[in-house]
Design brief:
The protein contains three helices and no strands. It is mainly alpha-helical. It has helices spanning 21-57, 63-91, 108-129. It is 62% helix and 0% strand.
């Protein structure tokens, strides 16, 4: 439940800092650590779907709001889809593929792409929540 702690001896895992990092988290922090990581991905899914729902309520629906909603859902699938593949590898459903766990695993290129995806999510939320600045909306000079 609580893991062995960060300094406890662990089993030697192949690619423990990239492909199987969730196993290392499980050994060190236990079920609580793994559930915390899964909860973080659930927050990304919830936020992205919330952006899409808020975009559907904007009237009139402008191309910028529609694009923000599509980008948010696309970034969600990029991040969470990659996480699900990595988790399937960690539990043994798939062979080791070399796909790192987003926002957790070691690797510059993956971290860079995931940081850009998180920035797009943030920008999409700001675009959807912007009051009255949408084209043709209240407060917009035509």
């Amino acid at each position: 439940m609580w893991g062995l702690g960060p300094d406890a001896p662990r089993y030697t895992l192949f690619a423990a800092h990239t492909d199987l990092v969730i196993s290392s988290i499980g050994f060190s922090l236990g079920l609580i650590g793994v559930l915390t990581v899964l909860f973080a991905y659930w927050i990304i899914v919830h936020t992205s779907l919330n952006i899409a729902q808020l975009a559907s309520k904007v009237r009139p629906l402008t191309p910028s709001v529609h694009g923000a909603a599509v980008l948010a859902v696309g970034c969600m699938f990029l991040i969470v889809g990659q996480a699900m593949i990595n988790l399937a590898v960690a539990v043994g459903f798939l062979p080791v593929t070399g796909i790192p766990l987003p926002l957790v695993s070691y690797g510059f290129s993956s971290m860079l792409v995931m940081s850009v995806a998180m920035g797009i999510l943030h920008s999409s939320m700001r675009e959807v929540q912007r009051p009255g600045d949408h084209e043709g909306g209240p407060g917009h000079p035509d």
